[in-house]
Amino acid sequence: MAGPVWMLLPPLLLLLPLGSLAGHRSWQKQAYLSHKGIGEACRSDEECQSNCCTTGSLDPTGKRCNPRTVFLRCPPWRKPNGHSCFRNSECQSRCCVHSNYRPQKCCVPQTIFLQCVPWRKPDGDFCSSHGECQSQCCIQLREDGPHRCIRRSGILAQCLPLLSLGGRLSFLQGTTAKSHGAPATRPGPQP
């Protein structure tokens, strides 16, 4: 059984140097054409070391050399974090959200759990619903005052109004001291 394999091996070894020399020439030609690195301007895939030239950079008139994916695909260019966007697909991070008080969205990194979390208002800011706040807690501190984001309080970190010794708010009874038994108003559905 081993005899036929050893008889085929010498002819195969003779073919090996010829095949490697043929491959060497095409590699030499490709190395000469593909001299541009990642981020450099290009006109075709062959000009890039990555063999990936795509359109859609911040300069819409030009094409740039881009890296290939792990699966050797040539993906379209996407905006880096901090640039304005309209859709998740425009961003490298695949995460386009409001990141502050400005009306436009921008590309931001995903969380460690690969979630795209929108920006929320910090404690003390005006709000109209719980979802607007980082603390997920938007309440009216005074009966005649605006709703504001506040930190959660209590052992179970619930969204409760702060207990005031002056009698402004009492979360134990759910009423304001000044209103003498009238229920306090809260955003969202009432129990």
Automatic annotation (TrEMBL):
Question: What GO molecular functions are on record for this protein?
Answer: enzyme activator activity
What top-level branch of life does the organism fall under?
A: Eukaryota
Protein name (Swiss-Prot/TrEMBL): Leucine rich colipase like 1
Q: Does Signal count among this protein's keywords? A: yes
Name one process (GO BP) from the record.
digestion
Annotated signal sequence is 1-22
Q: Which GO terms describe its cellular component?
A: extracellular region
